[in-house]
Write a structure and sequence with these properties.
Structural class: alpha/beta
Radius of gyration: 15 Å
Number of strands: 7
Number of helices: 3
Largest sheet: 4 strands, mixed
Distance between the termini: 5 Å
Helix content: 25-40%
Strand order of the largest sheet: 3-1-4-5
Strand content: 25-35%
Length: 127
């Protein structure tokens, strides 16, 4: 397990704060990270946060969080799929708990149960 969690928010000019929220608790990802940061640091995991601004491009029109170089949205989707496979029967179709929408400013919003964000953080610490 890695002993460092590097969180990078790459944002677009004018983007106020990330549109990443826990669908069940209403807590933003930033608030969740702030609440678990002392627990990680108590266990010897150094947490660093960095904010970068990028210009929109053809490949990326949205800001994003990266956890140790891994895209948060990808980590959350992987956690969602893994949790579903552990609890489903072979014939049950996959239904995602991750919701991707656009807010009133047109920014991409990611909503998922808080447990998936917590699992994503842990997955980013794996070697």
């Amino acid at each position: 397990m890695k002993k460092m969690l590097s969180v990078t928010w790459t944002r677009l000019p004018g983007e106020e704060r990330p549109c990443v929220r826990c669908s069940d608790t209403g807590v933003s990802f930033s608030e969740l990270l702030s609440s678990i940061r002392p627990l990680l640091e108590r266990d010897g995991i150094k947490v660093t946060c960095e904010e970068n601004t990028q210009l929109p491009s053809e490949t990326s029109r949205d800001g994003t969080f990266m956890l140790n170089g891994k895209n948060l949205e990808d980590l959350v989707r992987e956690a969602d799929r893994a949790g579903f496979l552990c609890h489903s029967s072979k014939c049950q179709p996959f239904t995602s708990s991750v919701e991707i929408t656009r807010n009133e400013r047109g920014e991409r919003c990611v909503k998922a149960p808080e447990i998936l964000f917590r699992k994503a953080i842990l997955a980013s610490l794996e070697d």
